[in-house]
Write a structure and sequence with these properties.
- The chain is α/β, with parallel strands linked by helices.
- The protein folds into four domains: 164 residues, no CATH class; 170 residues, Nucleotidyltransferase, domain 5, CATH 3.30.420.10; 62 residues, no CATH class; 86 residues, no CATH class.
- Helices cover 46% and strands 14% of the residues.
- The strands form five sheets. Strands 7-6-3-8-9 form a five-stranded mixed β-sheet, with helices on both faces.
- The termini are far apart.
Length: 546
């Protein structure tokens, strides 16, 4: 029996080279000029068992049965193999996977053997060339030679070439983090989640701060990658964490300071340095374009957004009544995620330094003149201010979402900050007192669209234009003046009622509808005369009866 088995093994070892010669398969030397190892077909594994090879689990079962004292026949029956096969694996003492040998021959000729020198030269010239690109070029050079189904074969051969001769990849070095050592922060866009407020899309970002040792995190909603969003987000998240690490790493601040002029960029860097000094933090930044250097927070971006998506799916709706309701959901989710990190957080909390007595609340300050148009220009955007400030210079404190306007040390007003550049925000209350005296200026006013506080006011103006276009501007300006003088909400309600009844909302009609009722005259009451003698008579009558 052993001689027969040896003969079978010799027959198998001699069979495959004959198959290679019979098919005429070229070796790698034939079409690369390099060395063997990259074939045109798959690398297969063979063993002495051929198609009847057993799995490792079957051989392990056989061994367990034999260890229990079973006979060869019993163990073979339990493992689902013949007694001959059982003896073979007992004699060799190895598992089937340990007996496998890689096949070094080709099962069929490589379809790219003739053009492989050209392919290799192109990859040597530029290793970033993709297989799809090279395949398209080959089809142009040799029409009809290659079919679309051969693209995957080319991909495999190029992958094998790159593994042997391609350029090396950048190595990522895993780091050992210490408790309280560092925090990482970055912005992440949340628009892909499809969140809406009252049915209106809510485009926004999240500032994300992560402690690298415990992965405890904190977030804040923001609307741009501005310097102000970075500073306010960092301080807010740091105070939510409740301690200060030794180091803070962020990206290269390019998105936050690129829109600024050179002087403003210098000031922004200096303010950031002062912010880090206020918390006694060592500031570090990534190299430009190397996101993995901020790997902890980048990974948490993905996991956090996935958790938010799942929470929204469980909620059954992505619409919220207001921003506060959405922010509460995010903060609750962050708290739940932090609860899973309590073991490491307990270690890191002991290593964090205490917060300072107060936050710095850093912001950018700019001085701007008020133009004769009753407007100011802040960061390439236009805002209106009360006309009494024309000709003065104001101090504007720029925050992530608001502008605070000061005259000397007196706070005058706050207004929402516009995102981007070249935009404008005109409050009709600031200019209506002059516009009502010059209603003809309304028709071609540069910022006329800003003088419609709501869609109802716009519909009212369109109705006036349809009824009496020559007097529509005058009527509408007087309506705005009435809204500024009384109550905008009452005027809007009156306009809505009139439009529903198809009544043209002229100034007189709206004024009469919203005019408070006249005071009722209180009647004059005369002072009554009190006659107490009747009580005296009653007392005298009672005394007489007694």
């Amino acid at each position: 029996m052993e001689l027969a088995e040896a003969g079978d093994e010799q027959h198998q070892s001699e069979e495959h080279p004959s198959v290679q010669r019979e098919l005429g398969c070229p070796t790698l030397d034939n079409w690369t000029g390099r060395s063997q190892g990259c074939g045109g077909g798959r690398i297969m594994t063979l063993s002495d068992e051929g198609s009847g090879m057993k799995r490792d689990s079957e051989v392990l079962l056989m061994r367990r049965e034999r260890a229990k004292g079973r006979s060869q026949e019993q163990a073979a029956a339990r493992a689902g193999m013949s007694v001959r096969t059982l003896r073979r694996y007992e004699r060799r003492g190895k598992l089937p996977s340990q007996l496998q040998e890689p096949r070094t021959y080709l099962t069929r000729p490589s379809p790219f053997a003739e053009d492989w020198p050209w392919i290799a030269s192109q990859l040597e010239r530029d290793p970033a060339l993709q297989g799809t690109t090279l395949f398209g070029l080959l089809k142009e050079l040799h029409p009809g030679r290659y079919q679309a189904g051969q693209l995957r074969t080319l991909h495999r051969q190029i992958a094998a070439w790159r593994a042997q001769y391609g350029p090396g990849h950048e190595v990522i070095f895993p780091q050992i983090h210490e408790p309280g050592e560092a925090a990482q922060s970055d912005f992440t866009y949340m628009n892909s989640l499809g969140v809406t407020l009252g049915g209106v899309p809510f485009p926004h970002l999240v500032f994300h701060l992560v402690l690298v040792y415990s992965n405890v995190e904190a977030i804040q909603i923001c609307f741009s990658e501005s310097y102000e969003s970075l500073v306010e987000g960092f301080e807010t998240c740091l105070w939510r964490v409740g301690g200060v690490p030794r180091q803070h790493r962020t990206d290269h601040l390019s998105a936050a300071i690129r829109p600024l002029d050179p002087d403003a960029r210098t000031q922004a860097r200096e303010r950031y340095r002062l912010l880090m000094a206020h918390y006694h933090l060592e500031p570090t930044t990534n190299n430009v374009g190397v996101a993995h250097e901020n790997g902890d927070v980048e990974q948490e971006h993905y996991r956090f957004k996935d958790a938010v998506d799942q929470a929204l799916r469980v909620r059954g709706s992505r619409d919220f009544a207001n921003r506060g309701a959405y922010d509460r959901l995010l903060q609750q989710l962050v708290s739940q995620r932090n609860l899973t990190r309590q073991v490491r957080w307990a270690e890191e909390r002991q290593a964090l330094r205490p917060l300072p007595l107060t936050p710095l609340l850093a912001c950018r300050e700019v001085r701007v003149p008020v133009s004769r148009f009753s407007t100011i220009r802040v960061l390439q955007n236009t805002y209106s201010v009360p006309s009494r400030l024309i000709g003065t210079t104001l101090l504007v404190r720029v925050r992530s979402e608001t502008l605070e306007v000061y005259r000397a040390t007196a706070h005058l007003l706050s207004m929402p900050r516009l995102l981007g550049t070249g935009q404008h925000s005109i409050d009709y209350r600031h200019v209506i007192w002059s516009l009502v005296r010059k209603p003809g200026a309304f028709a071609h006013y540069r910022y006329r669209d800003d003088l419609f506080p709501s869609l109802t006011f716009r519909r009212a103006y369109d109705a006036l234009q349809g009824q009496a276009p020559e007097r529509a501007d005058r009527h509408y300006v007087r309506l705005l003046h009435l809204a500024a003088s009384t109550s905008e909400s009452e005027i809007e309600t009156a306009l809505g009622l009139l439009l529903e009844q198809h009544v043209v909302p002229t100034f007189d009609v709206v004024r009469d509808l919203t005019r408070p009722p006249s005071a009722q005259r209180v009647p004059q009451l005369s002072q009554p005369r009190l006659d107490l003698s009747v009580y005296d008579r009653l007392l005298s009558q009672e005394a007489a009866r007694a």
